[in-house]
Sequence to fold (67 residues):
Amino acid sequence: MKKIVLITMLGVFASAAFTSCKETTKEKQVIVKEQPAKEQDGVFEKAGEKMDNKVDEKVNEALDDNK
Fold:
């Protein structure tokens, strides 16, 4: 009787050991397709023109003050 109980307990512990270590969740892979960014026509050119205009205004003001 002791052998049967011990064998049964050993079987329970062995099955519990294998099932508790088993990973139950699966990781999902997310694939993101990269698309090229839309080019905004002349962003740098527009910013440069605005800066040039501001600088030109300041220079013109400075020249007018000197006359």
